[in-house]
TrEMBL record:
The keyword Disulfide bond does not apply. It comes from the Bacteria. One of its GO terms (cellular component) is membrane. Keywords: Membrane, Transmembrane, Transmembrane helix. The chain crosses the membrane at residues 12-33, 39-57, 69-102, 122-142, 154-177, 183-211. InterPro entries: ECF_substrate-spec-like. Pfam families: ECF-ribofla_trS. This is Energy-coupling factor transport system substrate-specific component.
Length: 228
């Protein structure tokens, strides 16, 4: 397990990876790379997510334990994509971030996308899904203190996460259709995607309402028992 000992380096990685490196890899990959090379971009995002995760812990044993829990949450997200219409991936990513931190949330969101797409279909859109679900988890971790204190705020965040996912994915829609970004096409894509956006928001709210209490209780016990 990679261990980053320098606090300054860890702090730099926590900022650079989710807000600079991964967005740049995703956008540049969509614009400059041939569609047949999309898996290279997705793998680059996955490696970046793993680096971010490694920056989130100071002790090797603690990081290993967190990785085991993250693997379980990714597996649950993978299985959740087989549920028709409403998907629990964002909700499970958010729950992970609330109890294990922003870095774990980003990793669960991004790995869930690339791994499940080996079944549902890889493509240039995979990196955008990884970015979207990763950021949803990352910001949930940053807001964990407030979201854990208020179930209403948690559900509101879930709804907002559904909107954010749609907004990010529609960037890919415009780039794919227009071979470049156009604000008018982007606005049109947002309007066209309203039914899907609503389904994302409703799905997040529903699964957070149902899953946050039981999953949160179990994750909290694991944190205390194993010192994660």
């Amino acid at each position: 397990m990679l261990l980053i000992k320098s606090k300054k380096m860890r702090d730099m990685i926590r900022i650079a990876v989710p807000f600079i490196a991964v967005p740049m890899i995703t956008i540049v990959g969509a614009v400059a790379f041939d569609e047949k090379k999309h898996i290279i971009i997705s793998l680059a995002v996955a490696v970046s997510a793993l680096l971010l995760f490694a920056a989130g812990f100071e002790k090797k044993s603690t990081g290993t334990r967190r990785m085991v829990i993250v693997a379980v949450m990714v597996a649950l997200c993978f299985a959740g994509r087989f549920i028709p219409f409403l998907k629990p991936i964002a909700a499970l990513t958010i729950i992970t971030a609330l109890y294990l931190g922003s870095e774990a949330g980003f990793l669960v969101g991004s790995l869930s996308a690339i791994l499940s797409n080996f079944y549902f279909g890889q493509g240039p859109w995979t990196a955008f899904q990884m970015l979207a679900w990763g950021l949803i988890g990352f910001f949930a971790g940053l807001l964990a203190d407030r979201l854990l204190k208020s179930r209403v705020l948690l559900l509101i965040y879930g709804a907002a996460a559904g909107l954010a996912y749609s907004f990010i994915m529609d960037i890919w829609t415009v780039l794919w259709y227009n071979q470049g970004f156009d604000i008018n096409l982007y606005l049109a894509a947002l309007v066209t995607a309203i039914p899907y956006t609503v389904s994302y928001a409703v799905s997040n709210v529903l699964f957070l309402y149902l899953l946050a209490p039981p999953f949160g209780e179990k994750l909290q016990r694991i944190k205390i028992k194993y010192g994660v």
